[in-house]
Amino acid sequence: MPVIDRKAGYSFVYPFGWQEVSVQGQDKVYKDVIEPLESVSINMIPTTKEDIRDLGPPDQVAEALVRKVLSPPTQKTKLIEAKETDIDGRAYYTFEFTAQAPNFTRHALGTITIANGKFYTLATGANERRWDKMKDRLHTIVDSFKIETKV
C-alpha cells in the first residue's frame, strides 16, 4: 500500500493488512495488528545539514542512530550492514541491525537521508523468528522510500 505525504515530502509502501497507528514523536507508523513487532515508522527532525554524508560515513552514522535513537538503551544492538545508495542524485544510508531484548530480538532495517531542511528516518522490522518470512517485504519498504525535493 503506498503512502504519499506531499506536505512532508516523502513516499513509501507498506504491506497490505498493516494499519496506521498514532505514536507520539513519529510522523507516521503502520504495523501488523497480529505481529506488533512488524512495523514501519517515519520520523523527521529539522537540521542545518544539507547532505547525509555531512554526518559521517554510513556505518558510523547508522551505529549511533541504532544505539541512541532506534533502540531502547536496555537492548543489546548489533549493526549488521550499512551502505550508501544514490537515488535521483540524493545520498541515502541504508542499514540492517538487530536489537535484543530479554524476551525477543527485533531484526530491523532503516534508511536515512537529508532534504528540505529535515533529517528523515524510516525504520522497519520484525521479530527475529519471522525474519526469513518478512525480510523481502521489509526490504521492499526501505527500497521504496523516496524524498521529493520541495522547490
UniProtKB/TrEMBL annotation:
GO terms for biological process: photosynthesis. One of its GO terms (cellular component) is extrinsic component of membrane. Pfam families: PsbP. GO terms for molecular function: calcium ion binding. Residues 3-147 form the PsbP C-terminal domain. This is PsbP C-terminal domain-containing protein. It comes from Aegilops tauschii subsp. strangulata.
